[in-house]
Amino acid sequence: VAQDEDLGEQIGNNIYFDLVDHDKVQSFRDQKQTPFNVFKVSSPVTVL
After folding, report:
1. Per-residue pLDDT band at 47 (split at 50, 70, 90)
2. Is there a contact between 10 and 21 (Cβ–Cβ < 8 Å)?
3. What is the value of pTM for the model shown?
4. I need a labelling partner for 4 at 20 to 30 A (CA). Which of 11, 13, 21, 31 fits?
5. Rounded to an integer, what distance in angstroms lies between the CA atom of residue 24 and that of residue 1?
6. Record's superkingdom (predicted)?
7. How far apart are CA 38 and CA 40, in angstroms?
8. 1: closest CA among 32, 19, 22, 24?
9. For the chain, what are the domain ranges?
């Protein structure tokens, strides 16, 4: 999942406005049984 923070870090570094290099995005795992409506980002997102 790419967040605004990931876009802010990569804009201007050979990445265009809404494209993100997902290899540089922090990844995490969640249980397969977790419903999508329960899935939330635990840390606040800061826009640079």
Report:
1. very low
2. yes
3. 0.26
4. 31
5. 11
6. Eukaryota
7. 6
8. 22
9. 1-48
